[in-house]
Each structure stands twice: as structure tokens, then as C-alpha cells.
Amino acid sequence: MNFSFKEIVTASMVLFAVIDILGSIPIILSLRKKVGHIQSEKASIVAAVIMTAFLFVGESILKLIGIDVNSFAVAGAFVIFFLALEMVLGITLFKDDETETASVVPIAFPLIAGAGTLTSILALRAEYHVENIVVAIVVNIIFVYLVLKSSAKIERVLSKNGLSVIRKVFGVILLAIAVKLFATNVNQLLAH
Question: Least crowded by CB within 10 Å, which of 48, 73, 83, 169?
């Protein structure tokens, strides 16, 4: 077992920024208004299962289609880069799908375990030990569950300005992570 506190913290931060559950509070609140109740437990468990499964079989799926992890990590760096730009500049490049019902589908996938999250998991796998990423997934799912459970209270406490500041700060962190991920994996690709 190669548990590393530094790896767990970094992987947790990456996933926290990519999942952006605090930035998704307005979406969660509008879904709650539409359908009345959100199944926080179910959404959290399904998201955790999707993320963990992708951590273990994602690489095999890539091999099946002939893509190595470094190439996927570089592509992932671009996705993370654009997600970060969205957060920092307050523009929308993704998330244009409007959902009709709030069950597992809009919240667990793609809101929590969406393309950005799954890409990040595989990109992290190219750099970190699997057990540290699993811990990071669990930490994030616990946080996601708590946010889903208390989204209305969080909105009252933080207000729109507070949420906006948090989003921008994590956007900048995410930009730096995307650049590092790109640089590390491009070097490994060029070395082949």
C-alpha cells in the first residue's frame, strides 16, 4: 500500500475543483424546486460507484481502443483547462443539457461524475497511486453528500457572491493543475 497524504490532498483538491459541487448549488436548488426532493444518498452512492469503476476499468477501455493513459491525461488536461476557464471567467462552455427530473441521472451523472471528473480520474491515475485516488473519491463523495443534504442552508450562508469567489479561487487552482498535468504527460509522450 502506497498511501501518501500529499497525493490524497492533491487528488482530493483536483476532484473537488472538477466536481465543483459548490458551483452546482444553483443547479441543485433549481432541480429541487422542480421535483421537490433530491435523493442525496442514492446520487452520492451512484456517483462513487461510477468514479471508482472508471478508475479501475477506464484504462482497460482505453487500451481496447488503442489509447495510452498519457495521451488521455493530456486530453484530460485540456478538459480541466476549459472547465477552469469557465470557473474563472464566468462563461459557459459545457453543461448545456437541461434535465427534466432530479434523480440519479442529472445529479450523479453528469453533474458529479461527469466527463470532466472521469477524465480527471484517469489523468490522476497516470501520476498517483490508485489507493490515494480511491481515498480522494471517498472524501469528495462525503463532501458532495453533505452539500446535497444542506444545499439550501449553504446558499443562505454563502450568498451568490461567496459562491462566486469560491468558484474563481478553485478555477485558478484548477488552471495550475491542468498546466502541470499537461507538462508532465506531454514530456512522457515525447520521451516514447
Answer: 169
